[in-house]
Design a protein that fits this description.
17-stranded mixed beta sheet; 16 helices; globular
Length: about 575
């Protein structure tokens, strides 16, 4: 049985800490101690908000679409009704300028092939290759570019690893593996062992290929190291692709970015007298050197290019004594929109991902707005756009913040809430990253729950949601996922539900709202986030990144520069 507990303002005001972590005993808001949050009402609101956001009327909430207009209006109306202050001056919305580029694969307007000794191996769009360009050009051509296998495509001085050492890939096509060497080796001494680092993310690999001057960058898809099956690649990288508008109109990117299926990569590597297993084994060797293959790559992409504007949305419960200091709750409101080419259901409703997280943001805004005593610091509720396109909305906010990073106490991110009822655990994404873990563990103990490390650190979820954009500028961030050890059905059942969602519904039209979802577990998670946020907002604690975190030095430098 769960321990009965109440989350009133006074009960949540535990001792705050200064930047060294010492207790200061803040008592602000103690008068609200008898005011409890109504968990049944929270669950009801979660259902209501999620059902609306995931409805067909919102058409999958694609950026710069009619679905976005409905979403933005829904959020702004909610925040305004709560009496929350606009987050961006006199506006609740922050314009995010985007370039929208859509490959036209039909009618001979797309071509991709590998050639050896005059014999071409064509690649079918969608079935074998998903290719696009982030250059703002209607036609992209790569012709006869030499293919080089660059292992994992990583240049990481901090790990003593450089797959590009000793080779010039300017104008060439780099072929690389997903994830990082620690995953395949399982050796904790190599990178972070099974836990993916940012060097394993597809975003990093394309960025590094561009820095190296490559003409094209091809990622070999494999389900386990990628963390999702090929059909997720098909749904996520077809249709419009977005990027933040840049002064060079995307010219700093490689001309062609692409995923190739494992079967297509196998056929390609065979032309270089390699198997995929042999290529992986070579890439793991400390002596690995990038390998030119006796193959060239050619591609032609015709695309529709347009500039558009999407929006972040933010509301603030302003702080009474330190309004320029802020705790940020965040969730991405966007999903994949509608695909008219699909048979049957054409709408990617994105109910779990991330109507639930956005609904959770709205529920927390409800709770903080109703607290009769204002917090010491400001509490911001940030709904960001274009997460599905590479964390673009949060990246734009990090570059154009309403609260300076050194004044932002912490960020708590919600990306997919628990739809399967109460759990004995809650999963922390990013183990031992910062002091927010300690706060989460203390709050979870009150619920008779345990904080556990993510079961699949190899999937790199810490680098796959919007808190990462804020972490990159030094802001301590908490990203906790649903627990898996169901109180009613056990851990194996919970893991099975999680895997079923990934296989059946993740980034598919099947991700639809179900009124039979048990959101009581999601409410318990929101209560944890509320307690942590309440301590930070009503106190004066500054969470720190832990020793060994790649973000600690960024935060320390930012705080030092601000003094």
């Amino acid at each position: 049985m769960l321990k009965a507990w109440l989350l009133g303002a006074g009960l949540l005001v535990l001792a705050g800490c200064d930047q060294t972590g010492d207790q200061t005993g803040d008592q602000t808001g103690g008068q609200n101690g008898n005011q409890a949050l109504d968990q049944n009402a929270m669950a009801s609101s979660l259902h209501q908000y999620t059902a609306t956001l995931a409805s067909d009327e919102f058409a999958g909430r694609a950026p710069a679409s009619e679905g976005e207009e409905k979403t933005i209006a829904f959020l702004e109306q909610h925040f305004r009704a709560l009496g929350l202050k606009p987050g961006f001056g006199d506006s609740y919305v922050q314009p995010v300028p985007l370039a929208e580029i859509t490959v036209n694969p039909k009618g001979g307007r797309f071509h991709a092939a590998f050639t050896k000794e005059g014999e071409a191996l064509g690649m079918g769009y969608g079935s074998q290759i998903l290719a696009w360009s982030l250059r703002e050009e209607p036609e992209i051509t790569v012709e006869g570019s030499e293919v080089v296998f660059v292992g994992y495509g990583i240049n990481a001085p901090d790990y003593g690893w450089n797959d590009y050492e000793g080779i010039d890939v300017r104008g060439k096509t780099v072929l690389m593996l997903i994830n990082d060497p620690g995953y395949a080796s399982g050796d904790p001494a190599i990178f972070n062992g099974k836990a993916m680092t940012y060097y394993g993310r597809w975003t990093y690999k394309f960025e590094e290929a561009a820095r190296q001057g490559a003409a094209a960058a091809l990622l070999i898809h494999q389900k386990d190291p990628a963390g999702y099956p090929w059909d997720v690649v098909q749904s996520s990288w077809s249709g419009p692709q977005f990027s933040l508008v840049s002064e060079d109109k995307g010219q700093s990117r490689v001309a062609v970015e692409a995923w190739v299926s494992s079967s297509a990569a196998t056929a390609l590597l065979q032309r270089g007298d390699l198997t995929l297993d042999e290529a992986q084994a070579l890439a793991l060797s400390p002596d690995f050197k990038a390998m030119p293959l006796p193959v060239t790559f050619s591609a032609k992409l015709n695309s529709t290019v347009r500039h558009t504007t999407s929006h972040n949305v933010m509301a603030v419960r302003e702080g009474a004594t330190a309004p320029d200091e802020a705790l940020i709750y965040m969730a991405h409101w966007d999903h994949l929109g509608t695909d008219p080419s699909l048979k049957g259901d054409k709408i990617y409703n994105g109910a779990l991902d991330n109507a639930t997280g956005t609904a959770g943001l709205m529920v927390l805004a409800d709770a903080f707005s109703k607290a009769p005593t204002p917090p010491r610091r400001s509490v911001a509720f940030l709904a960001v756009t274009a997460e599905e396109q590479g964390l673009l909305g949060s990246a734009y906010y990090a570059a154009h913040p309403a609260f300076a990073p050194h004044k932002t106490v912490a960020a708590i991110n919600m990306d997919g809430l628990n739809i399967h009822g109460p759990t004995k655990d809650i999963t922390l994404i990013g183990w031992q990253q910062n002091d927010l873990q300690d706060m989460l563990e203390a709050a979870a103990q009150k619920q008779d729950r345990m904080v556990v490390a993510e079961p699949t650190p190899q999937n790199g979820y810490f680098y796959r949601s919007d808190h990462f954009s804020l972490a990159k500028v030094g802001i301590p961030a908490l990203y906790a996922d649903s627990g898996v050890d169901s109180r009613a059905h056990g851990r194996e059942w919970g893991l099975a539900q999680q895997q079923d969602y990934i296989d059946r519904a993740y980034h598919k039209p099947a991700d639809e709202y179900d009124p039979n979802w048990d959101l009581s577990g999601a409410v318990e998670d929101l209560l944890l986030f509320y307690e942590i946020g309440h301590q930070l907002a009503y106190g004066d604690r500054w969470p720190l990144w832990k020793e060994g975190s790649e973000f600690r030095a960024i935060r320390e430098q930012d705080l030092e520069d601000a003094q």
